[in-house]
Amino acid sequence: MAFEIPEGLAPVLLPIAWLIGHWEGTGRGKTPEGEEFDYSAVVDFTENGQDWLHYAMQLFETDADGAPLRPLGFETGFWRPAADGAIEVLIAQPEGVAEVYLGRVQGAKIELATDIVVRTATAAVATSGGHRLYGCVESDLLFTYDRGTADADLQPWLWARLRRA
Questions:
Q1: Considering Cα of 86, then 82, then 14, then 156, what sign does the dihedral take?
Q2: Strand 21-30 vs strand 36-46: parallel, antiparallel, or unpaired?
Q3: Torsion-angle region of residue 83: left (phi > 0), alpha (psi -120 to 50) or beta?
Q4: What is the pLDDT of residues 111-157, one digit of tens each?
Q5: CA–CA dist 80, 101 (Å, integer)
Q6: For position 2, what pLDDT does the model report?
Q7: Is 36 part of any domain?
């Protein structure tokens, strides 16, 4: 996996330093009703000398050639690793959902499960929980996101393969 560790990076970030950068790629999704869809994704992990990473992901509907047509979703948050391999991830979505994930960093694999989900009264989706898996495979960022809602048990929602851009 070819990447450069930023000078002055907080030591606690070293196990997740491989995430830092700009990633782009495509993925598939599946609605609770079973309808599958394609999308493109842009993900950024940035650091600023603190002991956390800032995270932002935007998804786009694509045409038959894979070109972005319109935004599908956005989320942003903070990844806060601990020296013992634990990690806390806070994610907010403009549709009215905020999630706190707890997990473990194991080499180039990060597994997360929701600890808390908070929704506004007008949230677009009644998210009830999630499970996420991130990994570096052949220098690409792979992720899966399983989501539960008030109407559906935890099930596959999004998965993608992104390349460092």
A1: positive
A2: antiparallel
A3: alpha
A4: 999 999 999 999 999 999 999 999 999 999 999 999 999 999 999 99
A5: 10
A6: 65
A7: yes
- 150: phi then psi, degrees, rounded to nearest 5: -60, -25
Structure tokens at 3: 């990447």
Residues pairing with 157 in the sheet: none
Quote the CA–CA distance of 101 and 91 in Å, as a whole number.
8
Q: Name the β-bridge partners of 48.
A: none
Quote the tokens at residue 97: 């959902």
Domain that residue 89 falls in = 11-164
pLDDT bin (cut points 50, 70, 90) of residue 18 is very high
Residue 6 is assigned to a structural domain of this protein? no
Backbone angles phi, psi at 7, to 5 degrees: -65, 135
Whether the CB-CB separation of 102 and 85 falls below 8 Å is answered with: no
Quickly state the pLDDT bin for 3 (edges 50, 70, 90). confident
In a domain, 5, yes or no: no
Residues in the chain: 165
Read off the pTM. Answer: 0.94
